[in-house]
Amino acid sequence: MSQQEDKFRKVISHAKEYGYVFQSSEIYDGLSAVYDYGQNGVELKNNIREYWWKAMVQMHENIVGIDAAIFMHPTTWKASGHVDAFNDPLIDNKDSKKRYRADVLIEDYAAKLEAKIEKEVTKARKRFGDTFNKEQFITTNPRVIGYREKADQAIQRLNRSLEAEDLADVRALIEELEIACPVSGSRNWTDVKQFNLMFGTKLGASADSAMDLYLRPETAQGIFVNFLNVQKTGRMKIPFGIAQTGKAFRNEIVARQFIFRMREFEQMEMQFFIKPGTQKEWYDYWKAERLKWHLSLGLGESNYRFHDHEKLAHYADAACDIEFRFPFGFKELEGIHSRTDFDLAQHEKYTGKKLQYFDPEEGKSYVPYVLETSIGLDRTFLAVFSNALQEEELDNGTSRVVLRLPSVLAPTKAAILPLVKKDGLPEIAHRIVEDLKWDFNVQYDEKDAVGRRYRRQDAAGTPFCITVDHDTLEDQTVTIRHRDSMEQQRVPIPALKDLIREQIDIKAWLSKMRSV
Ligand code: ATP
Known about the structure:
The chain has 516 residues and is of the alpha+beta class. 41% of the residues lie in helices and 24% in strands. The chain is built from 19 helices and 23 strands. The two termini are 38 Å apart. Residues 218, 250, 252, 261-262, 265, 267, 332-335, 374-376, 378-379 line the site of adenosine-5'-triphosphate.
């Protein structure tokens, strides 16, 4: 097992063991690519959502939120292009009977070449030591150049064939690259076929009057169809944004990456309505702004990168992803799309209603252009969680597992621990819990030796442990232990609240966006 696979396996089992993520319907052997969040997971998820909502809605005077329904009029999805174009190209292996996304098979092939390049770079860095120049190496080393060319050619041809809807060529490419099924090892492939990702359902009681509906595959359309409602009732002036968080559903075929690719997931989207012609400047603005938001969480700058789309979706005139270094490599975390007037114009066409904005400065009406930021809540959860999980060697020769969640997002902010279960210490600990619980999520924990309780809280991601001991009886002070540094501080009980608040204050965390 590679180091990456091993790390990913640990992330999944830790998420289960500490009540973060469970497989859906596990007692029935689970449902593929569907997950439930446990007692800690729901808190982390809520905190991420709030962190996004505050940054987008509360901190921007010209952005407001909505909460649209999951069910929408079915014509919405005809207008948005999802009925005709929300497809994945699929291919089956005739021997294993396994189904794959044809584009993903080719992308995986290219990723393997990229991994080979990384290996060459690591080897060369060892060989050349301090004098190593990566840029020079990758532009001159013949082996690396060969890998890069092969990878680029494969991706470019894939994009060209998908663009031209030439599925026969996608299959030909898979054959030429000699891509084999990971399960059967054979290259016995079927034709490539398009498969729509939307889930259908029915509304209404009787079979003949029932209406075919879709579960929304993105939250964005709920914003577009409410554009005029919000603009008029909120008297919004362009530029302005509408934000929304909520569930989306996609019948994903490649579903083997835990909560990275789910069939039911949650998005946090914001559509920013702008004057036509200004989309380039707003695209650059939102790219920078969103990256700052990510960086404010402190997961490390080198874990993010932009990836510009070469093959644009049917609605976009520019698009990029913010990718994160997940345990299985760099992958999309958020999309930033310049959607032009595509969606509003399509809804005008299908409804016959004007979806325009009267611009008092211009003295005319127009269909606004739209800049979208779209981030997966579950993928952000995975980014934060997998980055936080660390195994550490300690000075005394032992090791510990610690979940270094950003304290602003941690499910439980502090655990209150009486050193022993007697001598009045539990009573004081309970009083501290009673006091702090009005402000933060706190937990009382008296089971096992205090060292074990520290380890348990480290692994659960709790940033502070507060220990009540016999000195507390004398001087009303307690020990506060910091999860990351393991440093301990003696503080008076009344000082606890401010001390914790300072560390977890959303304002302090978000204002880091200004300085990055
Ligand atoms: P991918 O290429 O990985 O399938 P996408 O380009 O289809 O993603 P978008 O349609 O741009 O994704 O959706 C916006 C965001 O929603 C993504 O950046 C991702 O964070 C999240 N997302 C999309 N599909 C899923 C899914 N199946 N499970 C979890 N999150 C998802």
